[in-house]
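Researcher: Next sequence.
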Amino acid sequence: MSNFDLRKYLAENRLLQEEFIFEVSDNEIQAAAAKALGVSPEELDKEEDKIEEVGLALAITIAGLIPPALELVGNVTNKAKQMIGLSDQEKKELAELNKKIEFTEELIQKADKSTTGDVSASERQARRRLERLKKEKDEKFGTKFGNWAKHAGHSLHHAYVTPIRKMFEYVAKFTKKDSKLRDEDYREKLSNIIYAATMMGVAGYGIASHINHLHGVGPVLTTIADGVKEGKSIVDLVKGVASMI
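Model: Next structure:
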């Protein structure tokens, strides 16, 4: 692995040293919840007993929650984009490496399905190529992602997920008593999945190994990655994954 000067990297990427200090007020969270429910903040605040229960299917309900949730954390997402610090050339190179890795993995999968005996010479060659590509990706980009996650990961995650969880908690009061949204554990998983989908969209698949430990993300990480690769919107991606948790 090539030598890496952390102090130099931090000096060149000064934003890495900053905390994500984006305070989202309770009023903003309430306004986002009201938007998701299709009522005014005044109605939500003063006439809670008159708000009808959200009786739609969970996937449809969640689809309506995501846009106002993302609006709450728009500033956090924008700052995350700045902090990755990849140049346009690096982004292009990373995208090309990801394509080569994906193509090689598909070749290996096809070879596995077509052979029942010994591993063929072409498959061994493909596996060696995959190992080289992954090593190249790790050497060129792994340190950047790793240090970004190490220095900014915790504060970024907290700033992003906290207001979304609060909004979900607020909306949950108006859902049916058997709604999954009333389950705090489910709301945490859902918030983390939205975060994971956004960060993979911002940073690329290289960040996957740094977020798979988040509660609820690990089991659906491949599904999230596939959705990002396909260019799915966060709404469609999370709506699909929501039924899996």
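Model: The CA atoms of residues 59 and 239 lie 5 Å apart. The mean pLDDT is 80.
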